[in-house]
Structure formats: C-alpha cells, structure tokens
Design a protein that fits this description.
This protein is of the alpha+beta class and about 450 residues long. Helices cover about 55% and strands about 20% of the residues. The chain folds into three domains: about 150 residues, PAS domain (Beta-Lactamase, 2-Layer Sandwich), CATH 3.30.450.20; about 100 residues, Helix Hairpins (Orthogonal Bundle), CATH 1.10.287.130; about 140 residues, Heat Shock Protein 90. A hairpin with a 5-residue loop joins β1 and β2.
C-alpha cells in the first residue's frame, strides 16, 4: 500500500510538472509570436519612413541594409511581384512574389502577414508586408524557433526539474504515507479496545466495521470451539454406553434375563448417535451452502400436511393428538429445507409434551405474508431459557431431552433454515402451559 501511494504521488507530481511546462511554454510561445509580429510591424513602418523606397527609379546599389539590420530580412516588391531589393539575396535569384499570401494581402488591404515553417531548419519565418504610397510593397521577415524547438531546447532543464521533483516526492511521499497510515495501524492494534477513538472522523466507519468484524470473528471462533467441545461430549456419551454394554456382554457378565435389556440400550444409544451425526451433517451442509440453495414456489400447507401425516404414528405412540388447519399458502423456498424445519418443530412439540397432550399445526396468510404456527400444550419453556433454546446443544431439561432422543440441534437447524429463507421466528412459551412457535415467511 505504501509503495502504491508513493508511486502515485510521484506520478502525479511528474504529470503536474509536465503539464505546467507544456502549458507555460504554449502560453509563452503565443506571447512570443505576438511580440514578433508587433516588432515586424514597427520595423516595416520605420523602414517606410526612411524614404529609401519612395521611388522605383532609385539606384538599388544605394540601399544597403545588410550590415545595419543583421537579423531582419527586408524585401521590396514591385506591383507586378518582381523583387526590386532584398538585403539577404540577389534579386536575380529570387522568383516573382505575387503568389505569396502576405504580398497579396498587402496589395489588397494595405498590410499582410504570414508564417511559414522550415522543416529542415526547424524554424518558423514570420513575414509582415506593408503597401507603400508608390504602389510597391515593403516586406520584412525574421526567423524564430518553432514550438517543438523550444521544447527541445528546454528539455535538459525540464528533465532536471522532473528529477529534482521526483527526488523530493519520494522523500515527502514516504513521510506522508507513514503519517497517513500510522493512525490506521494504531486503530487495527486497538480493535479490542472499545474506548479507542480514531484520530480522524473519516476513519470512524472503518473502525466500527473492523471492530464489528473482529468481534464476529472472535465470536465465530468461540462458537466453533464450543461446538467442537459439545460434539465431542455428545458423541462420547452414547459411544461410552455402547462400549460398556458390549464389554459386559462380551465378558459373559450379564445373565440371560438382562441380555435383552442390554441389547435395547445398545440400539437406543446407536440410534441416538446416528440422529446426532445426521443433525451435525445437516448443520454443516447448511453452513456450507447458504447461498447455493435452489428455491422454487411451494405450497406451505401441502408440505406441513405431509409432515403431519408422517408423524401421526409417532404422536399416537406417545398418546399425543396432532392436527393441522389452514389453507393453501405459496412461498418461495427450498422444499426439503422447509420440510426439515416443520418436522423438527413438530417432533419437538411431540417430544416435550405430556401424555394426552395436543399439537396443532396452522398455515395461514396474514397481511399477504405466509405464516406457520406450531402450538402444543406441553411442558413449556422457562422465560430464562427462551433466548438460548436456538443455540446448538442447548437443552432446557437435559435428562428429558436425552431420554426422548433429542440431540440438542433441532432448533439450531430450524433457526438456520429460517435465516436462509429470510423469514422471522417468534417463540411464546410458559412452563405447564405449552409452547407456540410462529414463523413469518
């Protein structure tokens, strides 16, 4: 980052120098041209006032301007374009000048100007012609460097200035970037300090975002660590039981009358272990494919009715009556996940209920919003535990949960599915009264 800032500052400085030099040179050259034209005009009028060129019958040999004005070329042209005098060349070697634009302008308007470039000499020649009273034209001319020649001549100075500025920019940009980045480095080192205030108010949003992300990362790391510890504990319990029962059976330490009981315990713990592994795999899949799940239009009532039919036998085994009410309600979601959600909630309503209890599943549309309600009159959840029941492996009644085959991950899966569908979930419960869970899609 520092190198990028340094490079860009140096680049900006170089561009600024070049742009400034080019701009100033162009402006200067424009002023220079106007100055040359003004000087030529003055020279032409002064020569006209010398009365050298009053008569065409004057002896040309008497006019000698070659030594008096070395940098000024003077040409006298007759009305037919013939060169009568030139202080820089022999008149015999000069062609007719009637085709020259400055001469034509002078004959028509009294004065004429022109600039012609010499590519071989890399110079511009400025011409100024004035019409005399006797009908002839007096023209003066001078050479000046072209704009490109001015740039070339100034190139060493420009290069030297650029090198000096680059050297200065390297030092200044190094100090500047160090000064600019220091508050950011200090801010990053104080992410865990909630009282730290960034020196620049512009950094406040970044500071809050980084602190929030840092907190989230730490929370996620802790949650992952807790989850790993809980998984290890939850897996260890049924495995230990299975291993213990198997060891007793293998050693012949169990009488025939108790063997059947031990087999049942091994099967029960194996089923619990399988359910736990399945739930862990489901959570892992949900964590991994949050944004790659295929959604479609599904009927929430149809899926809920299917789940109730599948769980009716399980409810009857525990002397729980289960019913469904409502009407067709379309939502945009993943059918398998919605079915998983409803099954988990209904299984919980059955598992944590009392013999003779009731479970009611309702599907309705409230204010154009699909609503799923699972209500039971079971044991209920104390107010102190209601905020934590959606945490992984959290159980209100650990002994009852394990006895009924609960893994402690059902509501965590439910919460995850709700978040994936951008829905909301509400829990209303009281001990001895029952639990009502409402999901708004």
């Amino acid at each position: 980052m520092k190198n990028k800032i340094n490079t860009r500052l140096v680049g900006i400085a170089v561009l600024a120098v070049i742009a400034t030099v080019v701009g100033i040179t162009i402006i200067y050259y424009g002023l220079f041209q106007r100055r040359i034209r003004a000087d030529l005009s003055v020279n032409a009028k002064l020569l006209r006032d010398t009365h050298y060129f009053e008569s065409v019958n004057i002896d040309i040999n008497e006019i000698d301007l070659s030594t008096d004005i070395e940098e000024l070329r003077v040409t006298w042209i007759a009305e037919d374009g013939t060169v009568l005098y030139d202080n820089d060349a022999s008149t015999g070697s000069l062609k007719n000048h009637n085709d020259r634009p400055e001469i034509q302008e002078a004959f028509i308007g009294g004065v004429g100007e022109a600039v012609r470039r010499s590519d071989t000499m890399n110079k511009n020649t400025f011409y100024y012609a004035v019409l005399l009273d006797n009908g002839t034209v007096l023209r003066v001319a001078t050479n000046a460097q072209s704009l490109w020649a001015v740039f070339v001549s100034a190139a060493p100075i420009i290069t030297f200035i650029i090198l000096m500025i680059i050297s200065m920019c390297v030092v200044i940009s190094h100090l500047l970037t160090k000064q600019l980045l220091k508050p950011i480095e200090v801010m990053v080192s104080n992410l865990e300090n909630s009282d730290y205030e960034s020196p620049y108010k512009e950094l406040d949003p970044i500071s809050e975002m980084l602190r929030s992300q840092h907190t989230d990362v730490l929370a996620a790391a802790k949650a992952r660590q807790d989850f790993t510890a809980n998984v290890s504990h939850e897996l260890k319990t049924p495995l230990t039981a299975i291993s213990g029962y198997a060891e007793l059976l293998e050693g012949g330490m169990v009488g025939e009358e108790k063997k059947n009981h031990f087999y049942q315990e091994i099967r029960k713990n194996a089923n619990r272990l399988l359910a736990l592994i399945n739930d862990i795999i489901k959570l892992s899949e949900l964590d991994r494919v949050d944004h790659g799940i295929a959604f479609e239009k599904i009927d929430l009532y149809e899926v809920a009715h299917e789940c109730v039919n599948e769980l009716t036998v399980n409810a009857k085994l525990k002397d729980i009556s289960i019913a469904i009410e409502g009407k067709e309600s379309a939502i945009h979601g993943n059918r398998e996940l919605i079915k998983e959600l409803i099954e988990n909630l209904v299984q919980n309503a059955i598992r944590y209920n009392n013999p003779g209890g009731k479970v009611l599943v309702s599907v309705n549309t409230i204010d154009n919003t699909a609503c799923l309600i699972i209500k039971d009159n079971g044991i209920g959840i104390p107010a102190a535990d209601q905020q934590r029941v959606f945490e992984r492996f959290y159980r209100v009644d650990k002994s009852r949960s394990k006895a009924t085959g609960g893994t402690g991950l059902g509501l965590a899966i439910v919460k995850h599915i709700v978040e994936i569908h951008d829905a909301s979930i509400e829990l209303d419960s009281a001990p001895g009264v029952g639990t009502t869970i409402t999901i708004m899609f």
